[in-house]
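S., here's the first fold you wanted:
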Amino acid sequence: MRTTDELEKIDASFYKINRGGDITYHGPGQLVGYPILDLDCFFNDIHKYMRCLEEVIILTLKNYNIIGTRIAGLTGVWLQAGGGKPERKICAMGVRLSRWVTMHGFALNANNDLSYFNNIIPCGIDDKAVTSIMEETGESVDIEKLKKQILQNFANVFEAEITLA
């Protein structure tokens, strides 16, 4: 890990929090969503919750002609290797539960500067790459439109009504 001085030089900070997923990066151009659900009202299965959260992102990526997928044993949403590119993560996920209430969530790379990931081993996975919607499509993403798509897909996958705080 970089020292505090090194982080300051790249305008970054390190925060230790209590959630799954090892280390990740949150920054401008990323869409970070921390859904708060009482899973007692849905299902008491953290693995099912994670797969449903992944499905929300996979459905959203289809709007950008991006085929998101899962990799067995690794949480998050990935793009398969191809076209000279390795397998790469487009959405990191890390959650925590307390009494079946979810905390934390996902970080979808939309328009963010991917170079910050060079300073960490994202999610503790050192043999895969990181990408973004903009990197894959060559076009900047309208974040407000992206938010609406995610909310709609979330409502559909979880068969829930969305209330914004």
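And the second, which I think is the more interesting of the pair:
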Amino acid sequence: MTNSPPGLPIAQSLALRELSRFSRQPARIVAAVATPLLIWGVLAAGVGGAASGAGPGVSYGAYVVPGIAAMSVTFSAIFAAMSLIEDRASGFLQGVLISPAPRWAVIAGKIAGGSLIALAQGLLILALGPALDVPGLTVNVQGLGLAALALLSMSVGVTALGLALAWVVNSSAGFHGVMNLVLMPMLLLSGAFFPVASSSRWIAFISDANPLGWAVRSMHSALGVMPTDPWAWAGAAAFPAAACALAGVVMRRRSAPSPKPEPAQPSPA
């Protein structure tokens, strides 16, 4: 009887496959960099010198830098989840699932590949923040390191959550609906683009319970935009663990739905 192949090399191969797929899509790379910078420029210039609500001397441009990094991570996680649906439609996913590869290796490989891509995009935004000389943004090695840790937690957590959601739908159109219902409201209500302290009480409550809000507030505190919030850091550390556990439960106990067949074309008369 042959032994099952070890899971770690399989997870590494799947992660490298995600990175290779991303590197072969120049349009996606350009969009991943240009879109967040464009949105940051529009928001920073549009709001201009308006107070961010985070504290004296902190511009809105400084406040929104972690938010733009969070947006980049969220969009990247959406693309990672879309790749799962593409793998299912092409038959690649079914081939992996019926192979001797352990299911945990498939889950870990997809999460690792998508998280690395999301983290790289978010780190690029954080690195460009100091280069743009944004007023009110405290930049030092310790602050950037802590912000990178918060961004890592968000990258793993959002990627795992996106893959769990993509696992239960069987079409790209269906996943877009799930994305608009779950991921986008989480981003908008995370405090990434406006301070929740001055918002309605119910919005502040949702932001306090929002996993993305924990990571965003952690990045804000790491970069000196807001005071340190130990509870936010605790939540940012717990989010990726909970999201990976959810992805593991969904992807291990539930079989992947078959892709929807294309509608039959009428035969010519």
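Why I say that: Residues 189 and 206 are 7 Å apart (CA to CA). Residues 7-253 form one domain.

Talk tomorrow,
H.
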